[in-house]
Amino acid sequence: ATVFMRHLHRRSLVREIGLAFDLHAKERDLETQVEERTDALVHAAAEWRATFDSVGDAILMIDRGGHVIRANLAAAGLARQGVQLIPGTPAAVLLRRAGLDGALGPLGVLQRTGERSTAEVRHYPSLRWYVATAEPIPEGREQAGGAVLTLRDITDVKLMERAVTEARDEAGAEGEADPGHLVERRTRGCER
Length: 192
Hints:
Blueprint: H1 2-54, E1 58-62, E2 68-71, H2 73-79, H3 91-97, H4 104-113, E3 117-123, E4 128-136, E5 147-153, H5 155-173, H6 180-187
Antiparallel strand pairs: 1-2, 1-5, 3-4, 4-5
Helix pairs in contact: 5-6
């Protein structure tokens, strides 16, 4: 009986040791999976940041309290400060400091109506023109109730429009029916 008990005890120990090895192997597998997923998330975040920063239009992500959550490099350039310093800044303060007070209009409309809003705004002191568009962040997102504000430079378009209008006015004053040559002369150099 004692030999039999020792045999059972050894089998039990072998089984327990085998289970311990299995558990250890599973733990290593889980750790590897966590590391791989963490690396994938870090890589995806870096790709998203690179994409976000490569957009030429200024982009501000704003929470429902009116504070900037994230800004791209173009927005940091307009604000004349480092992109890392912008999060947490009230959007109104940032836009006023950047000379883009007019961009507050679309944000205000969005806050009142919940609808997308767009306006042309002038940047001071550069006197460049921008289209400011405030879009709501869709429901179900972590920052729902916030907004994304984009600022697209339209200065070249405005210069072209002014040149065409002036050429038409000049042609009308001179009694010309076709102001085409005047439009061409005035718009030369307006395109990028």
